[in-house]
Amino acid sequence: MARSYQPGAMRVLGIDPGTLAMGYGLVDEIGDRLCMIDCGVLQVSGHTPIPERLHLLYKGLMEVLRSSQPDEMAVEEPFVSRNVRSALAIGRAQAIAMLAAASLHIPVYTYPPARVKHVVANYGGSDKQQIQHMVSMQLGLASPPPETDAADALAIALCHLREKHLAKVIATGD
Amino acid sequence: MARSYQPGAMRVLGIDPGTLAMGYGLVDEIGDRLCMIDCGVLQVSGHTPIPERLHLLYKGLMEVLRSSQPDEMAVEEPFVSRNVRSALAIGRAQAIAMLAAASLHIPVYTYPPARVKHVVANYGGSDKQQIQHMVSMQLGLASPPPETDAADALAIALCHLREKHLAKVIATGD
Fold first, then answer.
1. Do B157 and B23 meet the contact criterion of CB atoms below 8 Å apart?
2. Is the dihedral of CA B2, B152, B17, B122 positive or negative?
3. Which of A169, B26, B98, B168 is 20 to 30 A from B65 (CA-CA)?
4. pLDDT for A80-103, tens place per residue?
5. CA of A6: how far to CAs of A11, A29, A73, in Å?
6. Whole-angstrom distance between the N-terminal and C-terminal Cα of chain A?
7. Alpha-carbon span A77 to B54, nearest angstrom
C-alpha cells in the first residue's frame, strides 16, 4: 500500500463514516484508468466506550493515511438521518476522519449518499449490493469487495474522482 | 490554571460542544466546596473549512487539558436536535472533545441539556440567562461568566459533580 511515484496520478481515500465500522477505500486515477489500491473496514467493539472507540478509529485512520499518502479525502455526508442518535454518530465518525486529514494537510470533500449512488450506479436509490457490483465493475475487480462499508468507501472515492473530472470538463469546455 | 495538589479534590472539565464555539468550564470540588478554576470559549471562524476548524478546536482543547489536568470530562449530548445539520455539527464537536480526553486517558461522561438545566437550575426548560445566573450563584462568582457557552460548560461540570454526589449518597445510604 506504500505509495510509489506515479507521474500525474491522483490518489483519493474514500471514507464511509461510522463509529463501529469505518469503511475506507483508496483509488488511484492514472490518466484515464481508475485503480483500486486498497480497501477495508476499521472495526471497533460496541462494548468499548465511545471516546475510546473514536481514539482507536483515529489511530487506525492515521496509520492508513500515513502509509498510503492520499492527495485528497472524500467523506460521505447525509442530508437526512434516521434519528438524532444516528446523526450524532455519523458526525462523530466524520470528525475523526476530517481531523486526521486536516492534521496531515489533506483536503477533504463531502458528498451526500444519494449523490454517490447516482454518480456510481446511475440511480440515487441503489442498494448495497448494486453499489458493490458497480464499484467492482468500474474498478475491474475480479470479485466485489466482501464488506459493504469498504465498497461504499470505494464508491465515495469514485464519486469524488468523477465529480472532479466533470468539473474539469466544464471548466475547459473539452 | 496549572494544577496544584489539593488532597481529595476532584477537577471536572465541562464541555458545551460546538464547531464554531466550544465552551469549556473547569470546576474543582474540594470537600463540600465547588470552585471555578477557569472557563472560556474556543472560537473559530465560520469561513474556515470544517476539517481545519476541528483541527484548531482539537489543538485548543488539548492545550486546556494538558495545562489543567482534569480528572474527568462531562460533555453535553442532546436527545433531540433542530435538524440533521445541527446534530452532525454537535456530533463532530463532541468527537473532538471525546478524542482529546481519550488520548489523555480522561474518563468522559455525557448529559442531555434538559438534565443539566434541571440539576443546575431546578427546571429543564431554563433559558441561557437563568443558567448564567444559577452557575454564578452556585460557584460564588462576583458576576456571571459573560459568554453563555462558557456558562453552559460550567453548568455541565456542576451537573456531573452533583450527579456523582447523588450516586454516592444512594450507594452509601448516607
1. no
2. positive
3. B168
4. 777 888 999 999 999 999 999 999
5. 10, 10, 18
6. 34
7. 16
- This complex has an ipTM of 0.90
Euclidean distance between CA atoms B53 and B50, whole angstroms = 5
Chain A positions in Cβ-Cβ contact with residue B49 (cut-off 8 Å): 108
Across chain A, which distance is largest between two alpha carbons, in Å?
A: 53
- For residue A14, the SS3 value is strand
Closest residue on chain A to B59 (Cα):
A103
Distances (CA, A) of A90 to A15, A81, A85, B34, B172: 11, 9, 9, 36, 39
- The answer to whether residues A148 and A172 touch, using CB atoms and an 8 Å cutoff, is no
Looking at the partner chain, which of B87, B101, B103 has a beta carbon nearest the beta carbon of A87?
B87
- Nearest by CB to A98, which of B51, B78, B80? B51
* In chain B, residues 62-91 whose CB comes closer than 8 Å to chain A: 77-81, 84, 87-91
CA B104 to chain centre: 17
Q: Which residue has the cell 441539556?
A: B113
Per-residue pLDDT of chain B (174 residues; tens, 9 = 90+): 556 656 668 999 999 999 999 999 999 999 889 999 999 999 999 999 999 999 999 999 999 999 999 999 999 998 777 788 899 999 999 999 999 999 999 999 999 999 999 998 887 667 888 889 999 999 999 998 989 999 999 999 999 999 998 888 888 876
Q: Could you give the domains of chain A?
A: 10-172 (3.30.420.10)
CA B41 to each of CA A171, B44, B96: distance values in angstroms, whole numbers, following the listed order: 42, 10, 14
Number of residues in chain A: 174
Q: Provide the phi-psi class of B69: left if phi over 0, else alpha when psi is between -120 and 50, else beta.
A: left
d(CA B134, CA B155): 8
